[in-house]
Amino acid sequence: MTVAAKVKSITSGLLRRRSADNVEKDQTHDQHVQNDEQEVFLPPLRPVALPKVLPSHQYALSEHGWTTVTYNEPTDNLHEASQALFQASQAFFDLPQSYKETFKTEIGSEEGWSRIEGEKELITLRCLGNTPKELKEAASAYWAEAGGLLNETLGRISESLGLPAKSLTQYSEPCAKLGSEKTATMLRLFRYEGFEGKESKTVAEPHRDLGLLSLVNGDTPGLEVWDRNVQKYYQLERTYARPAGSLLVGRQLERLSNGRYVSGGHLVRSYPEEITSDPTKPPKPSRPYRFSIVFVLRAHSPIPVDTDNLTTSITGPYKNPLRDITANELFSSIQSAHFNINTHIEEREVQRQRLAEQKRQLEETKGENEKAVEYQTVEAV
Ligand SMILES: [Fe+2]
């Protein structure tokens, strides 16, 4: 099934918008508390042309929190940059562990190299200074392409909300290049294990990303996205008949758009064999690894956040207004309410239990503490 077939068109003049609680409730892989049954009637998003997204795939981004990036033909700079980075990434992960360990940091998956046995190895690049020499050239070129695309996409999203492009690109422009200064944005390279064998295995638990937008490129299918209409995961990358990327909405954008763009639930699974589009051909043999490139655009830390400046007739009044905070403070409050799927399994369980206890305590005091809303979910990063 194509993305287009899965997207509900908005044909009426008014869109019946779910309350933020109902948006969360739609994603049953997450646990949420429903506060009220408030419903707000808002106009539809203004039509915009998201770059590199086919017209029939455009609405999926706001409705589901994910869509497909289709490369230009016959050549596409982003696709070429991704192929070069895949090559560099495979060569890097093939290097001895003792060398890769020199890129380990105290902040784990937020920067540098790390390994979660039985699941994956990853390296998170934040600035040139922490980028291995083997990756510098390809990572810089890819960052420039992906950063440029997501910056432009964010501008169109801003316009779809009835705002000037700059209202949202002010958060992304300072992160559009891999430079000497660390920014909130990151480039993560993964080598997932378990792509051999007879059974599917989940190698990244269900979660939603924390930032504004994420762009995922996989060298073999593995990404599955949450379909809110049928309440199931959808094997998005298996639908790609030609190389394509996947675009995901993160929690920061959901907050800044007052839920008009929902964050996209997703997971990564290893499949026992690759399905070919031609049923007369035998399945391709399984591969030991899946490589992926994930560009995570996060709002530039020092930029102030004031939802009064983002309020339009399309966003409607903010359910949880944000004033007098920075993008970094918004990020920290979202991050502290979620456990990190890229930490070791034992540490993940500790984080999960700690957050469940926080949630229980805050539910007891709900109504007394406005910040409780930030802790209503117990989910992964
Ligand atoms: Fe993710």
Task: Provide structural commentary.
Mean pLDDT is 82; it is low at 1-37 and 367-381. The protein has a seven-stranded antiparallel beta sheet with strand order 3-11-8-13-6-5-4. Strands 7-12-9-10 form a four-stranded antiparallel beta sheet, with no helix packed on it. It contains ten helices and 17 strands. A hairpin with a 4-residue loop joins strand 9 (223-227) and strand 10. It starts with a helix and ends with a strand. With 381 residues, it is α+β, with helices and mostly antiparallel strands. The protein has one domain (50-337): Jelly Rolls (Sandwich). It has helices at residues 3-6, 20-26, 60-64, 77-93, 97-100, 136-160, 166-169, 251-256, 327-335, 345-364, and strands spanning 15-17, 40-42, 66-70, 112-116, 120-125, 186-192, 201-207, 213-218, 223-227, 232-234, 244-249, 266-270, 290-297, 304-305, 325-326, 338-339, 379-380. Fe (ii) ion is lined by residues 207, 209, 266.
In a few lines, what is going on in this structure?
Residues 18-37, 361-381 are annotated as: Disordered. With 381 residues, this protein is α+β, with helices and mostly antiparallel strands.
Q: How many beta-strand elements? A: 17
Q: Which word captures the global form? A: globular
**What is the overall number of helices?**
10
Termini Cα gap: 28 Å
Helix-strand string: HEHEHEHHEEHHEEEEEEHEEEEHEHE
Biased composition (Basic and acidic residues): 18-35, 361-373
Organism: Hyphodiscus hymeniophilus
Protein name: Clavaminate synthase-like protein
Region (Disordered): 18-37, 361-381
